[in-house]
Specification:
With about 140 residues, this protein is α+β, with helices and mostly antiparallel strands. It has seven helices and four strands.
Length: about 140
């Protein structure tokens, strides 16, 4: 994976979008956006797994609500490939607040609120590596 660092990013289709039956629509948008799916699986995080994944936010006031939400139902974790993957995925996701997201973005189409905003994406290449390795082994990336 190290030779493709700039080409990989991590994403999550969050519990709100999975629960609402939007998984297929989000995946369709990802593929139409030029991404290759290098890894994908449906998981149901425990509260402890969500706390571990979002540990960087442990001191933030929204940490408890976020980890409760992320462990409330299944989600889909993704390893995505494309040139400039981190920026390209963040552009496709749109602003965290769906009311402020640009037309044509995933959050504009599928999110309902700042808290239930349909998708997650790595904010840097370094975090993409960390986040991908949290959920995928090398054998699971194709």
């Amino acid at each position: 994976m190290s030779e493709q660092i700039g080409n990989l990013t991590f994403g999550i289709i969050k519990p709100d979008a999975v629960r609402a039956g939007k998984t297929g629509g989000v995946i369709k948008r990802i593929i139409e956006g030029g991404f290759k799916l290098r890894g994908m699986k449906l998981i149901h995080m425990t509260h402890e797994e969500a706390q571990g994944f979002y540990a960087v936010h442990k001191e933030r006031p929204f940490f408890g609500e976020l980890t409760q939400f992320m462990s409330s139902a299944p989600c889909v974790v993704l390893a995505l490939e494309k040139d400039g993957a981190v920026k390209a995925w963040r552009d496709l996701m749109g602003a965290t607040d769906p009311a402020k997201a640009d037309e044509g973005t995933i959050r504009k189409e599928f999110a309902t609120s700042i808290g239930e905003n349909a998708v997650h994406g790595s904010d840097s290449e370094e975090n993409a590596r960390i986040e991908i390795s949290y959920f995928f082994s090398q054998l699971e990336l194709v």
